[in-house]
Design a protein that fits this description.
The protein is α/β, with parallel strands linked by helices. Helix 1 packs across helix 4. It has one domain: 3-Layer(aba) Sandwich (Rossmann fold). A seven-stranded mixed β-sheet has the order 3-2-1-4-5-7-6, sandwiched between helices. It has six helices and seven strands, in the order ααβαβαββαβαββ. The longest helix has 14 residues.
Length: about 210
């Protein structure tokens, strides 16, 4: 992202945007109890709604975002609730290769990686590589739609039908990935807003002998 993008997101959080959205994404809430708890990475965490949910459920969470203002709000919420999260500021579009290599504190061998409503197809292979064996990637992206839905208006920040699944299939020659769930369509968010989403849950299998 450019410096102007960083400023845009900082301004949004400072102005109180998303203040009422403290619920986790419904896909994560639905799947969390099915997962092996351990270390989690929340990518483009914003004000931390998914990170806070995971920490409250006993996960050890690293959370990354470009916005210092969003992370500040998340940190305050975590302190108020007595939750421990490692908040990491980084521009995940800034580096070629694996941008997480340039993030002090970011680890590897995560049991869960969450990527929610942040479109960066180049990042997905690096996230899959950071999954522990048996680890899960939970991804939810805005989908192109003619319906009146929330989210970005620009098609550049929405996926075409089938695009997310195709991106994942292209990785299977490098690492075994088992798709546990895939869905495209209209979803009603917990706050009542309608969203067009592509939703994916996959698990990293054992390496080939």
């Amino acid at each position: 992202m450019s410096e102007s993008d960083r400023d845009k997101w900082n301004c949004r959080y400072l102005e109180g945007s998303y203040a009422g959205r403290d619920h986790p994404t419904a896909l994560l809430e639905e799947w969390e109890s099915e997962l092996r708890r351990g270390r989690a990475l929340d990518v483009a965490c914003g004000a931390g709604r998914n990170s806070l949910f995971l920490a409250s459920r006993g996960w050890h969470v690293d959370a990354v975002d470009i916005s210092a203002a969003g992370l500040g709000r998340a940190r305050a919420a975590a302190e108020a609730r007595g939750l421990d999260v490692e908040w990491l500021e980084a521009d995940l579009d800034a580096e070629r290769g694996d941008p997480l290599e340039h993030v002090p504190g970011a680890g590897s061998a995560y049991d869960l990686i969450v990527l929610v409503r942040y479109v960066n197809a180049a990042l997905i292979p690096y996230l899959a590589a950071r999954l522990a064996e048996g680890g899960t990637l939970l991804c939810e992206e805005h989908l192109l739609s003619t319906a009146d839905v929330v989210g970005p208006r620009s098609a550049a920040y929405r996926l075409k039908p089938g695009e997310l699944l195709e991106n994942v299939k292209s990785l299977t020659d490098r690492v075994r990935l088992d798709v546990l769930h895939y869905r495209e369509g209209l979803v009603r968010d917990p706050d009542g807003r309608l969203a067009a989403l592509a939703q994916l849950v996959l698990r990293r299998g054992a390496a080939a002998p």
